[in-house]
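Troubleshooting log. The previous run stalled partway through. Resubmitting the same two chains, unchanged.
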Amino acid sequence: MVLKSLADLKEIVAGEPKKKLIVAAAQDQHSLGAVVRAWKDNVIEPILVGDKEQILNICAANNYDITGVRIIHEPDTDMAVEMSIKMVNSKQGDVLMKGKIGTSSLLKGVLNREWGLRTGNLLSHFALFEVETYPKVIAVTDVAMNIAPNLQDKIAIINNSVGCLIKLGYKMPKVAVLGAVEMVNESMEATLHAALLSKMNQRDQIKNCLIDGPLAFDNAVSLESAKRKGIRSEVAGDTDLLLMPDIEVGNVLYKSLVFFARAKVAAVILGARVPIVLTSRSDSEQAKYDSILLSAAASK
Amino acid sequence: MVDMVLSQKKKYRIAVAWAQDTGTISAINRTVKDGFVEAIMIGQAGRIKDLCSEHGIDPCLFSLVDSENETDASERAVRLVKTGEADIIMKGLVGTDKFLKAVMDKEYGLMLPDAVVSYVGVVEIPAYHKLLFITDAAVIPYPDLKQKVAMAGYAINIARRFGIDTPKIALIGASEKVSSHFQYSTDYVEMKRIAEQGYFGRCIMDGPLDLFLSCDEKSVETKGVRTPVNGDADILLFPSLESCNPFYKSLMLFAEGELGGLIMGTSKPVILMSRSESEKSKYYCIALSCLMA
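Second attempt completed without errors. Output:
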């Protein structure tokens, strides 16, 4: 199965036992709206860990009726993070979400050696984009977490992402390794990585997906462009997952798709024991809602 | 843009290297019919004629020059420009490396002494309230400070041709924070300093800025970052070709963007487009080059 739109996520989640979403430092107006909506839609069961009075005030001010939602009072944000993570570890939660706390504070907790959510895997950011003019959802990684991944990091990022796509119902997702050009060029490291990753995939060193690269953006997503350039590739024009060379490229592309192409986006952090929802203030409520759905779908 | 070209009431002579490419022929055909271009098509003359008849284009609208290979066609096109028989050179079906080799040849090419050769694109996007100038999507993989300064200068120059008196230049990064881990971000600090000293003339330059802070006023408000560019950039300068290239391609494919682009730093305008660019983009590119000729 291949996702045609982000709305498909709801069907995936609806077909499974309801997931428990733990919101760390939940006294956050920007997150609560999306959390409450997902709860009302019956797709997740939230547990709010944070300053109870502030949570109730925000809900009252925004007319969110949260009668029946479990709230655990912990006014200190670092303590709230620790408590949330310990709940995940004791199997009381399936997904972790960031509330009113800095990303670095949350990640510090996630990476804590004693009580964190480490699995030995690299943490990576995974985003799904729904663009009107592409016939299916396109996954992009890593646009936010790993600054300048080396070859080993890229393998880990692909494995995280392919694992997630398979959970969403994909079989052998097609992975395009992005370059500025489709030729291997020794002065551009990204193209060398791309060639290595493709070959490692052919030799089954990276499994469960079909990798080709380097592919320039147009060849990755447009069969017509690929044909005009005479590129023979099973991935070109039919990409499910686009691997970014580094965070600069990823950041620009992500923002270009959201702002100029009016793409819908859902994102999740992979590689920890459970999926982590890490949205930012500038994300729309819809994006936060879709990210909650994606994380729930990725947590089975 | 096309109106500005037409208002000059001039015909520009364009030499096309290795011209047997349908998209290029149709775009050239339109500019010839619109009355601002005379074209010299260099390539396999028989093939060019065939392609013309396939698409109902009259090959007599062009001067045809027969050539047997890509390198020869590129060198001939460069020579025509160099000797003043043509005003502008355009890449046809020839590979970019062979074409640029002819253009950048030290003896016979179109290089200016000590000039940085770079690429500036002009994009029209429905989701943005004005034209956007971008650099460098095609030539310099990882520009150093000197190259970035030249790139900014070229983009400002082109923006001024479009009547933008005080262009706003956003120096693009993944975030607005300066960090010694990112060489480009410290380069940007230096660029801002020389911009303030008046090196680029009248302009507003700021960076590092992400795409949202550069192009979306609302994000500037939400994030509470103070920047004179204020979500209203005319020019985006990217830290690398790797980030600029997928950026403009995403605009073309997913945001109904149209692109024209030029090589800068040469003695005459050089039109360099990817073979996969649409006919419409090629048309815009030609119009832009006429403005710069």
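Takeaways: The longest strand of chain A covers residues 44-50. Chain A has a mean pLDDT of 95.
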